[in-house]
Input
Amino acid sequence: MKRPILMIIPVLLLMSCGSGGSKKQPAEKLSEKVDSSYNVNLITVDPGHFHAALVQKTMYPQVSPVVHVYAPEGPDVQQHLSRIESYNKRADNPTSWNEIVYKRDDFFEKMLSEKAGNVVVLSGNNRKKAEYITRSVEAGLNVLADKPMIITPADFPKLVHAFQTAKGKGLLLYDIMTERFEVTTILQKLLSQKEEIFGKLIPGTRENPAVTKVSVHHFSKIVSGAQLQRPAWFFDVDQQGEGIVDVTTHLVDLVQWECFPGQILDTSDVRIENARRWPTVISKEEFKGVTGLDDFPAFLHKDVKDGKLNVYSNGEFIYQIKGVWAKISVTWKYMPPAGGGDTHYSVMHGSVCDLVIRQGAEEKYLPTLYVENIKSMPVNTLTEKLNAALKTLPYDSLSIEPVNKNTLKINVPNKYRVTHEEHFGQVTEKFLEYLKDGKLPEWEIPGMITKYYTTISALKKAKEE
Output
């Protein structure tokens, strides 16, 4: 099987120079709009996705409460500001953000000229994101970007260039990987490193990959207690990106993060075996239910068949990374089942047992970690070893519940159950730590480059097949 051909800028040079960051360059003259009493001043650019607001669902002591927002006039920025206002007005632990808004067509040029902060937050129309990232770092600004950073093969060299530019200027460019903070995912990673529990990760095969990760998302959902209204462009894969390069970013990230912790990866480690894509079909009534629009706008007509919108939001691919076989799958449905929401399934196959996360109706839609398919020791022996291993982890009150003669369930106290919305605050806090240190871990930038090479290669492969 031929490897997908992309226009690739060599990554090894970037890695060999210490890709985690470099000494900070002399600070540029600060804008008069910057509050110098805080270490961090946020700039929000063209917020079109609700993730932009979730970064501000909590306050941070080192971050100024004054946030400058630059965006075109329209419903996207208004919804963003309404969410921030709802956080400021909530009864429980209200925030105190002060949004200074510039709403004109030249918003991006205005942002670059004013430099009213030192961290640009990007979460919106992904078609423009590569340009926003590149020009922001060229202007001397750190960037915290929602996934995906890029959605087309043509943008991959731009992203590598942006990382090189950021390194040269002593800046940080980072994407928001919330799934690393989900407790069962953390436990799956930690236990996979306990050889007495998991054994060793098997390499797997194309037919039976060593690692499988499946994500199911929904167009209609509740966010911050209210029905989410999505912009119409969210349904245009030329603007949002196909599912195979969007949500899969999280899944590929978790494969790398769990299977190769702390290791520096490279694009040469990846080989896409096969990939496919398929649409979710949306009726006009469903479209109106999540956008408020009576009809499909003109830019979506290219995807309308028999009066219904075909959104290529679904994708699946099988690939090898450093000799380990992995399968990634993402599906978008219109609405979740009663009491449910977005779900995550993950399995890692070890020589002793399998570590499996399920989040279905049986788990009441809560991510739940199981130890399954115990292969090489009596279940009682593994239970004893698992109890001992759990006591070494940074969580108390974890318990084991037998499910059947070959399966154990790990019960996690509610105090460790952090919502998806709260994960954005955790990612931001981690980014702020890196910002204070002036660098990222050495493996992060090669990992991000390898991750986006993987998703873009999968898209290219799916379109070829």
In short: The chain has 13 helices and 18 strands. The domain at 12-176 is CATH 3.40.50.720 (Rossmann fold). The radius of gyration is 22 Å.
